[in-house]
Amino acid sequence: MTEGDGISEITLKASTTALTDNGTISVSSIVITNGSKDVTSNYDIALSDGKLVIEHNTSLVPTRLDAHKKKTAYEAGEILNVDDITVTAYYEDGYSEQITGYTTNADELDMITVGEKILAVSYTKNGDTKTCRFKIIVTHTHGFDNAVWHSDSINHWKECTKSYCDKSDGYKIQEISHTCEYTYTWSDDYKTCTAVRKCSICEYTDSETVASDIVVVQNRDCTNPEIIEYVARFKNSLYNDFETQIKGNFEAAPATGHNMSEWTSNRDNTHSRICTNSGCTYKETEKCSGGTATYFKKAICDDCKAEHGDFKADTIKPTGEIKLSDNTWNTLLNKITFGRFFSATQKVTIAGTDDSYSSDGFNLSEDAVKISYLLASGDEAKAYTTDELEKRFTAGEFKNYKASFNVNPDNKYVVFARIEDHAGNATYISSDGVVIDSTTPVIDGVAEGEIYCEKVEFTVSDDNFDKVTDIIGDDVQTLTSINGRYILSDGMHKVIAYDKAGNSTEVNFVVNANHTVSEWMTDKEATIEETGSRHKECKVCGTILEKADIEKLVPLEYKIIAGADSSWSQNTDMNLVIKGNGDFAKFIRIKVDGVSVDATNYTVAEGSTIITLKPDYIKTLSVGSHVFEIIWKDGIASTSFTIVNNEVADTNNNQGTDITQTGDTAKPVLWSMLFMVSFAGFAVMSGRRKKKNCK
Questions:
Q1: What's 303-372 look like in SS3?
Q2: Which of 69, 230, 349, 490 could disulfide-link 247, Cβ–Cβ 3.0 to 4.6 Å?
Q3: Buried b / exposed e across 632-655, counting CB within 10 Å, b at 16+?
Q4: What is the per-residue DSSP string for 643-667?
Q5: What angle do CA 270, 272, 276 make, to 5 degrees?
Q6: What are the pLDDT digits (tens) for 170-208?
Q7: Structure pTM?
């Protein structure tokens, strides 16, 4: 470094030294800057042993402190450690240094109380003190290591074992009432008794000692001595759970003897007798014995002559019977068959009896069997077990039986009955399956009084079908179906269909041996475009016996009698009228250029047949000649018409009139008059033709 060199923007630390590159240096020539600020005066610069020594001026004071602490959260009671604090002093010239000679207020902070604390760090240099502060958080978490029981007179619990516990919520656990064991100790003379209760968990103990009372529990009489007891009654001021203690049966005086009465019933299967001596209350009680019990009467005691014991146990189930028509059932069937059929409403009666009816003491109005029933129908009509029926009885599905009841058409039924005796013994019985069917069989394919030809087929339907018979004269035959159908040939038949309930349906009809053939009958008339059809049928039964086509008609040559070879001016609103001499009643359609024209594009009127083409349709056709055809059922008439352009139409002043043109557009008035004359003549001819047709 040479004279006049400067040092700028040096990062300095305390006691920083540096060697020069070329030996001797002039201290007065060194300049130290921080940014654009000259801070040379804040440093001591010297040479020592050929080294340049630059040190920050120790007489300066810092402008602020910055402190950092690694641990700022503490458990209550934990010692506040300040060894992990790093403090940095900052000077006005940008110089900073880490310091150690700082002080704190750590000794003044309450590290026992939970909360937020302010730790102050101070540093004094050259008489000037700077301080910085930051937060210390003190918390407390309860702990119960090696906790012991605490107690009062009611409860026991464990408490937080940490020395600086703040007794906040949760510092107690397992707080419950005492579980006490009790001991009672009498004095040797029974005059006092001490009660002690001790919790089996926390060993909390309290006690009470009371003086006993002497109580005479048995007075002296004929046979018994005087008996006394010592009774200890505790005040139980806390729990009221010390029990009264009795120490007794001490004889105080001997018995005097007694004179016994007759036995008297106590109405509880025992009898007693007492001493008749005055003042004697001795009583002797024994069980009654002797006699025989029934279902409704108890045995009579041989000594006191009163009822005793229980009624005779009734374990025998009652019996019953279900009756429908001539059928009776008295058991519960485990298989139901539906082999009994009736065509009308049937009455059902149920009866029951029991062995108790012959037992002494039986009362018919009180002890008769109780009958209830369940009428199962449709899909419910099937076999049930006793357990299944008991569930349905419990569910209230059985009805009390008071009198006979009816089963009505049309359904199938099983009757279940429950007979219960006075003791609750129950028996279930059932009928077999019963079908009440009032519906007659249905015969399809033949009708009463009808006549058929060659043969006839019919079917019979019925849910309980039995058979079909056919009566021809005196001959009765049972018919057999083929794939569900019955077939009969010629004859006078009386067919009767029966079901299993006896219902029947009768149909009388005749089957002829052959058909009676009609003449040909037209189904569809032939036209010049389509073939027709015809048939022959049986005059009796209407059966179609033969069919044939009718050939297309040979077309008649009809003529166009008005409007032939007409012309029409393009883009005008005139109609085009063409008339043919065919019968209006036989009109089918028209064609233009071989294509059928939709009926919405023209109108057709009678006289013979007048066709009026609408302008909207004509406008769709091209300029030039077009073939026009009227088609009747029996013939065709054809002509042509021409579409001309606007120039020709305008030249001849022929717009806006509904006239028939013949192609000569130079004389429209003349042609109009000719058309009117022709049309008038046509009308006259048409009128004459109509008159002729009406004759």
A1: CCCCEECCCCCCCCCCEEEEEECCEEECCCCCCCCCCEEECCCEEEEEEEECHHHHCCCCCHHHHCCEEE
A2: 230
A3: bbbbbbbbbbebbeeeebeebebe
A4: EE-HHHHHHTT--S------S-TT-
A5: 175
A6: 888 888 888 888 899 999 999 999 999 888 888 888 888
A7: 0.42
